[in-house]
Every structure is written in C-alpha cells, then in structure tokens.
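Subject: complex prediction, re-run

Hi both,

The earlier run crashed halfway through, so I resubmitted it with identical inputs.
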Amino acid sequence: MEHATEKRKRRIPLFLQAVLITLGSYLVYQYGIRPPIPASILFMFMVVTVAAVLLYVSLDDDSLEEFLRPVLTVIRDDRWKIVRWAFMIAIPLIAGWVVYDKTVPKIEPPVTVRSVHPAPPGSINVRGKTYDLRTLENPLRKDTANFTKHVKAGADVYIKNCYYCHGDFLDGKGPYADFINPPPANFQDIGTIAMLQESFLFWRIMKGGPGLPTEGTPWDSSMPAWEPILSEQEVWQVILFMYEFTGHKPRRWE
Amino acid sequence: MSKKILAGGSLGALGLAILVSILFSTPAHTQEPAKKAAVDQTATGEGKNIYDKYCAWCHGEKGAGDGPGATYQIPRPRDFTSGAYKFRFTPSGDPPLDEDIFKSVAEGFPGTSMPPWKHALTEKQMWAVTHYIKTFSDAFKDAKPKKIEIAKQISPSKESIEKGAKLYKDSKCWECHGDEGRGDGPSAKDLKDDWGNPIRAADLTQPWTYRGGSTHLDIFRNFTTGLNGTPMPSYADTNSDEDRWHLANYVRSMAPEKDPSVATLLSSAPVKGPIPDDPESAAWKGAREGFLPFMPQIVEEPRHFTPTVTAAFVRSLYNDDEIAFLIRWSDPTESKEGTAVDAFALQFPAREGEAGTKPYFLNGDEENPVMVWLWKHGTAGAVDLLGKGLKATGPNPKPGTFTKTVASFNKGEYKLLVKYSIKDRPQGAVSFAPGGFIPVALQVWDGGNGEEGSKKGVTTWTWFTLEKPTPVSVYLYTVLAVVGAVVAQGWIVRRVRRS
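This time it finished cleanly. Structure:
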C-alpha cells in the first residue's frame, strides 16, 4: 500500500500539483471566461480554489507531509540556501507592495448614473410652436409624392450637421466621435432609433443635451439643441433619412 | 482570414458563401476572387449603388469631389475625375493600383473625414466600389500602373536618424513642414492643391494625423511616390533609396512611437514651495500630461468647420496658494495683431456644484454659468470671464487673480503657463480643494486661420482633480507589512530548522 502510494505520487510531486492547479485555475478564470469576470469575482474564485487545494493536500498526514516536504527541504537543507534567501527577501517585498498598492489613494473619475433613453416630456415648445409629443407624427410620411426628395434633403442636412459625430455610416463613429464622452449614438444599432418613435427623435434633435431631464444628465451630452439652426421641415427630413439609410422602422403607437 | 469570413458572413447570401469558401481555400491570393466577383457586380451596378449611398455625399455623384459635404472639409474630398491619388505604390504622376484604392476605402485617412469603411462594408462591396470609382476618370483607360520597388528597409538607428535630420535640412523639407516638423515652415502658409483648394503641410509631430499611415514604410512610400495633386513632390530622383529611409526614420522619430490616448481625467500634482515658472524645470517635466483633441465649434453661428489646432497637452501643479496649468499645442502661425489673434481658454463651472452636475460645454448658460480663463496673444495676461452662453461671455464681475501668465511660441508650438490664486479666489468660486473633481474644458483659437469669437476649437468636459499628497499612513502600513513578514518568516524558519 505504502509502496503503491509512493509510486503514484512520484509522477507529479504533490507540491507541484498544488501549484499547477492553482496557476491553471487562475489562467482559466482570467482568460478562459468570456466576457471577462471582474477582478473582485476572480479574487473570490481564487480564495475558494486555494482553500480547496489546501484541503486536498491535507486530507491525511502522509499527503500533508509530502506537500510540505519541498518547503521544509528548502528551509532546512543548506544546499538550497540561495533559494531560501531569495524567498525570504521576495516575500516581505511582495507583502509590502500589495499593502502599498491597496492603501495608496487612486484617482478615478466619478461615475455618473445616466439614463440613455429618458422619458420625453409630454410636449415641447420650439420657436413659439407647441408640439404634443404623445401624438406627434412625421408629417413628411404623408407626402409620398416627394418622399425621395425629402430623404435626399435629409442626407444633405445630415452631412452638413450630424456626421461629424454620428459618422458617414450613421454608426456613431464620426471624425470627432472619439473625443466625446458619452459617445455619440449609433443609429445602426437596434437599441437606438429602431426602438424609438419619430417624435422622440424630433425632441432629441430640437432640444439636444440641454433639453434632457435630470436623469439623462443633461450636460454630459454634447448633443447640441438644433432648434436655432434647423427648421422643422429639415429635422423631419433628417429623421426620414436616418430611417431610410439604416433600414430601421420607427416605433409606432400600438 | 477570419475577418474575411466574418465580413462575408454578414451578407448571408448563398453566392457569398461560395465566395467565402474560395477565399478560405486559396490563402495565397485571398483578394483575387473577391476582386473578380466585384468586376462582374459592377456591370449590374453594385459599385454604383454603394457609391451613391455612402460616398457621393462628399465625393459628389459624378466623382468630382463636390458633394454637399465637400466645402466643409480640409482636406477636401478626392476628385476622382483626375485620377490623381495621394497614397499609392506607383511612380509620381501615375494612377494608383487597384489595391491602393481598395486600401484607401478600407482603412480611411486618419485626421480627415474619410472613415475606414472596412467596419461597415464587406470586402466584396469595397472591391465593387473600387472599380466603380475608377470609371470616373480617363486616367485608368489602357493604363497599366506598375508597382514601385521598395528598397530594403534601414533600421531606425541613431546614425540613420541623424543622417535623416541632415537630409531634412538639405532637401528643404522644413520649408513647408517647419524646423521641428509642426507644419509651420515659411512656405506652409496658403498652400494649395492642384485644384486650388487649401491644403496644409502635415504636422509631423502628430503621427495619428498622418493621412497615409504612420509606419516607416508609409513615410518612405510618400517620399518615393510623392502625393499626386498636392505640393508634396517625389524624392525618388533626387534622394537615394538609403537617404529616403534615413528621412523616414528621422520623420518618425519626431513623435513618440505610441500615440497618446484621450484623457478622461486630468490631474494636478502637489508641490512643496513655489511652483516653477520654467516649463523645463524638473517639477513640470515630472507632472503627468493629459492629451485632449479639439473639435471645431460647429453648433452656434458663426460655425467653424476647418480648424488647424488638433489637440492640446495639459499639465498642472498646485500648492497651498496657487494652481498652475502648463499647456502646449501646435499652431502653424503666430498671430498677435489684428482682430483674429491666437488664444486659449480654460473653462470651469463658475460655481462649486454638486458632484456630477455640469454647465453646458459651450460657455454655459444663464442657470449654470462657467468661469473662463482666457489668454489672448499680445495681451498682458490671462483674464477671468463669466460665461452664460457663447454670446453672453464677458468680464467676471468678481474676478479671480492670475499671479502669473507666461506664453511662448517657438517653431510652431505654443507653451502657456497660467497661475491662478486659490487663496484670493472670489467667494463662491470653485475652491480647487484636493481630492475633489471639477469639470474642465478647453478652447483654442488660431488667428492665422481666421478664428475668433465662436470660430474656435473646443473640447467637451473632462474631469480634473487635485491629487492629494500620499498620506503618511500608507507608508506606515507598507513598512509594517514588510517588517511583519520578515518577523513571521524568521520565526517559522527558526522553528523548522531547530526541529
């Protein structure tokens, strides 16, 4: 029995086994899981793994002894003097570094909670005209005879005003997009104009970031209010264009 | 390879699936099948459809570079009717290879309005549009563009860079690009391309704006082929292959290898004693530098679409009495007289707000005003303004005190140092307390580019903080940890060795 155990364990020494399992687990947690898990979860996983490994090696006295043997050899045997001193210097340094890293104040910008599609107001006032957003529809959709003309005019409005941030492909990757935080909206994404009504877009274009309610963190948005620059017709045209270009359909009242 | 499969797969058409399998099976000539397929498609108009939908806005329906968006851009969109292309692997004056056009479509041009279309179009679509673009010009008729030979690369050693520096002088590169490469040479003003459109000499210190790419090979290629249609000539006949590699090595050495990333947080480091006025002093050299790119002010009239200043680099130091900012930016011309002078502004909220609330980034509004520190070239020092909107910004009725303003312009670069007294700040103004977070935004005017008033470069808000000095307790805990570990392991080792 004793002999068999010895033979079995000689394949991979228990200490090396423990190190390999711990290291392997770390690599799996860090690189094997997609999307990556947060550092705090990884830390918890590692605590459980190390506990399990320690439990495994200390199941009986023999195995514990085998596990500790390399450690004790390094401590006792003067042939391992250099390794011993290397560990004795490295361990306090690592301890010091970990404590320093955990206690030194880190500077990170404050996080703002932001609602991406905040509820629109019931009505808005643009240059003295009141629009009821609950019933507002794009009037140009009724003008079927001139539909193509309106879309083309909308493209002109877009290229002269919007593409700088929202991009030629309407994917929020315009030439200045990288300089803006939060980033410009990606209209190709199904999470933006595809799930919104045209009246919502009308409100967001006319009133911009400054017109957002508090939960939309108004001044974080770099979206200008376009009411001083674009006419009502131009805004409806650019909305038509955005849907035509992306192939999305505006959400409608059920 | 995987990109091609992904791009192809997104179309989902059966024919494309076959194409993908061909692509997959012939790795040596991956682009050939797509190219051929695209030629067939051009006949049925796929290239035209893509062009009309995505490209015509800027390049125009007939490819003359005159789409509705064209006049809002410098550099202007390419006029395809001439067949003159800037970035090619063909000799000066020759039309480009198909691969050159394809690469331009796929990769776009950094620092311009041309985006990389590989994110939006499939490879097949990009080949189709490549072939369609060629139909705009007669230059491709019967033309068989020949690829230039690329001479063996010379590694960017110190000697090579030094040789390059001498060549930069002798070949008069500085006439347009400036002594230190900031596009500020004596001939840089009013450069025009072959169509008479304004064009600027590249700022060689900002490789992230190099249109044709910033690798050594990209730069070598430009020296070899010249940029057709622009004032940048080919140096293939005047400088040897080795010399052109030395030049490329020198040009690339004008900027750090790694492009800076946009700062999300600017920070100010604490100093004991007075803050030095000299930007070259150790304290300033050691301060963390944040990179912030500008976009033109395109919101309020008069709008501005063609800025020159692309970015600023910001550092900050503070002590108990003052806070100081040191900002540097490239500007090809020094303008300190007349109405349009070079200027710079730092913007903060006028009042100490709750965390997370910010004024409007374009000079605030009536409810949430901003404090604007404005420096104008040719004036005595920075002034404190109160902004309630772009058109409602004027002297601050309760101004703060600037204890020092030092500005210098040297070889296309401004350095501006502004010191503001924290001690003497007006009541209610931002307190600049260590540890707090304050929104900051920058604005810049290049007088030489006719920028004044609302015609300027702007940034949106970025967080700014004054770093707290590291508390003594941190060092105490660290020392305790080290000592604890030494004692504990000493005890264990002793015990083990005795047993």
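Chain B has four domains: 2-140, 158-252, 265-468, 473-499.

- K.
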